[in-house]
User: What shape does this take?
Amino acid sequence: MTLFERLHMPSLDAATAWLNSEPLGLADLRGRVVLVDFWTLTCINWLRTEPYVRAWSQAYRDDGLVVIGVHTPEFSFEHEIDRIRTAVAERGIDYPVAVDSDYGIWSAFDNHYWPALYFIDRDGMIVDHHFGEGRYEESERVLQGLLGVDRELVSVTGVGPEAAADWEHLRSPETYLGYLRTERFASPQGAAIEERRAYELPGQLRLNSWALGGEWTIERERAVLGEAGGRIAFRFHARDAHLVLSPGDRGPIPFRLLLDGEAPGAAHGVDVDADGNGVLRDGRMYQLVRVPDEVRDRTVELTFLEPGAEAYVFTFG
Assistant: This one.
């Protein structure tokens, strides 16, 4: 059927911990249809697929389906198991999750993507795979075929950050803020690598460019704020704007958001109120903006009222 037609499912023994289950070995899964879902808690693409994976687990577990989430971290703070536990609880995940902090399972599958779905038949053979979002109807039909059932597909509607992207109007790409992968940095001073520097926001940002204001250190995977009042801005074209943030070792860090220089009002995301107030408490993806009307070029600007904020990647939907 696919590249994986004659490959056995690799072992899960490299998991560093398990959530919602005792450790599962290949012998435990013999005779079951298995769906392996690679994810990481900050990934917007995974968040938008998770309602489907969750629904399939609940709809087909009595038919013999075992869904196994494999959490393989992208960023350093995603190794912390308490953060993974929080994400599992917040998303209502009740199927087994293998914590793959050392990339052992990732390497065994030779995986390269979040999210990634691997479909395993009752003989333990990988018969199909899918990387990224979409293909939901076909994926569910694959599961039904492996399970030997034929019925109406599940109805899924994502809400909040799990809602499907507005692909028709999406014009802004995922943009990392660490020096390893960043692009389109627009502060006039230019980026200094691993050096604390005072930055300024330019008078105007071009579409899909971003900038810092205040004292920041641009590190390999993040930009870290050194003093209160630091700002970060992005000019985007999308319905939704998100930013992966962490408070690091600091306590809660309040922030304020402006959209085109004003409070966001009805365009605020789930992590900001209509006046633009938010609090950075945990390392995760924060939904900053959800535009309820016309999608056009807009500028989102955050001001952090305490030092220590860590900013990783902007994503859009």
